[in-house]
Amino acid sequence: MKPRGRPKKQRIVQAEPRISQFSPRGRPGRPDETELAMDEFEAMRLADFMGLNQKEGARSMGISQQTFSRIIKKAHKAVAVGIVRGKIIKIQGGVVVWKKN
């Protein structure tokens, strides 16, 4: 079956995460997982950690401001679900291009 819609534009990611997953403590057994894509991680790094506004973050990632807004909203949702429900947050996947500074 052929994929529908336009293919995703590659997003520029400048920094690889130091860890690939974040696990909750104090929860017995193996908790469920939620995924945070690499572009979502980069959007959070730029906006929340580095303090860039959406326009600057979008320019850094090579995407539109509207796309950046959608990505950051999805990233915040994934992290909130992980924290509230005590899930492992795995950082992986996404259509990205690595850019070295």
How would you sum up this structure, described in words?
- With 101 residues, the protein is of the alpha/beta class.
- The chain has a domain at 32-98: Arc Repressor Mutant, subunit A (Orthogonal Bundle), CATH 1.10.10.
- It is built from three helices and five strands.
- It has helices at 38-49, 54-61, 65-85, and strands at 11-13, 21-22, 33-36, 88-91, 96-98.
- The strands form two sheets. The chain has a three-stranded mixed β-sheet with strand order 2-4-3. The protein has a two-stranded parallel sheet with strand order 1-5.
- The protein is globular.
- It starts with 10 loop residues before the first strand and ends with a strand.
- The mean pLDDT is 86.
CATH topology of the domain at 32-98: Arc Repressor Mutant, subunit A
Anisotropy-based shape? globular
Give the termini separation. Answer: 39 Å
**CATH architectural type of the domain at 32-98:** Orthogonal Bundle
Query: What proportion strand?
Result: 15-25%
CATH domain class of the domain at 32-98: Mainly Alpha
